[in-house]
Amino acid sequence: MDYRKQYEAWLGYEALEPQMKAELKEIAGDETEIKERFYKDLEFGTAGLRGILGAGINRMNIYTVRRATQGLASFVVSCGQEAMDSGVVISYDSRINSTLFAQETARVLAANGIQVYLSNRLRPVPELSFAVRYYGAAAGVMITASHNPPKYNGYKVYGKDGGQLPLAEADTVLQYIEKTDIFSGVKLCDLDEAIAAGKVKVFGDELDEAFLNEVVKQQVNPEVMQVMKDFQMVYTPIHGSGNIPVRKVLERIGVKHVELVQEQVEPDGNFPTVDSPNPENRSALEMAIALAKEKDIDMLIGTDPDCDRVGVAVRDDNGEYLPLTGNMVGALLVNYVLAGKKLNHTLPENGVVIKTIVTSRMTDAICKDYGVEVMNVLTGFKFIGEKIKAFEQTGDHTYVFGFEESYGYLAGTHARDKDAVVASMLIAEMTAWYKMRGMSLYQGLCELYQKYGTYRERLLSVTLEGADGLEKISQIMAEIRANPPKQVAGLEVVKVADYDNNTVKDLMTEAVTETGLPKSNVLVFDLQQDTWVAMRPSGTEPKIKFYFGTKAENIEVAEARLRQMENEMKTLIER
Fold first, then answer.
1. Rounded mean pLDDT of 418-438?
2. DSSP class of residue 516?
């Protein structure tokens, strides 16, 4: 059915919510808008759904949520009565319609005879991941669009191990979804009746307590806060779900002085104080930086709406507040965790640090120094979660720490997704540890540069929305794959990894090997002088992303090289 017929079918559906019908009538004369909403189904990928709120099959609304849930329900039913009785856990963040979508998800699952555990208020991604295993559930659903702008929401599906749904299972769910008519193919029940009958169990404080207990176990130097009783920090949840759990865990480990950005404490899916609630962007931390200046505090953190990412800014030697990149914080945390475990004699002999293929290679240098193996996985924390599961089954490695450059970190195995609660705790403890040594966190980073070399990274994200944008992204990747650069920033390309074709070609020897990872539309070019560039389409946003990394004798040289690489890539995609 083409997009125009889909549009007319929605308009002709008698039971369509009045607000949605009015919304569709308003765009009757806008062919481009009609096409954007109806030219394809909202894609169900390995992370579930994510899209713009509104009416249409390519939008997030109660009908696309119900259809996706019916597909998930059919999958759970196909796994047998034990899976149905084990149930599905549902949580949600502060985004627009998150509570509504969570309730609609519960209605569909319960109508299909599946036990449901529904959160009584917003809770973060890592707690949902923990809850799946805590309740022994067959699956989990988190209503969130993570750090996207306010017009987005999403639907993330988790497997019984608490990790994002594996590729094979996600494909099976997708097949069930595709067989489901968006209006007539969905089972629904009354939520209040389902709760009264025990088909939907509402959970609350008990889970919080169990989750926080596991997080606190990940402390590296518990005694630090007893010594640094005057330690101060600024925190903002950026209108999201981190407010309660982050503040509670900081209190439990002994952080006495936390200044809150009061204007950003209350949950609000409109995110009225920021353009985008993404702690990767300095703009999202500006109010926290202003408060830190006012209170004369050296360090601040901010978590995104679903509290799986955390951004950090620190005062440098010039008194200016410097937002640290995800790579910088990751390197600091890897060093801190490994140093602490080595000192405490708790660093396992078969320990492993896991990072993604577009994450800083400084990690490799640090881990080599501690005799710890580094494993690389594809972009997306689900692949780190899958490694944790595999280690538990085989016992041949012990997970120590994992992170990705996009501000996601995980210490411990209580969750199988990135966890800004445990990361916030460790960042606070680590900052206090450096302060105890008479150093700032910025000086701690400089110490790593002096020891391992100046590793710097940069990200270029190009947004191309809509059907035309999707086609343009595909064309860019195809063009670069067909005509790869021979040089970038004056440095020769020495190796090309094409994860879509499962090949790694050494241009010096002409030897070709396999990537060893699942197929993915990613290209990585290794250059001379410990420099590299990678590119891939985003899996959750209408963007193509370029990652740059280098090692240089100092920050100035590294930054100049990264700027040149970025400019050359901009020219490349504009040709």
1. 97
2. -
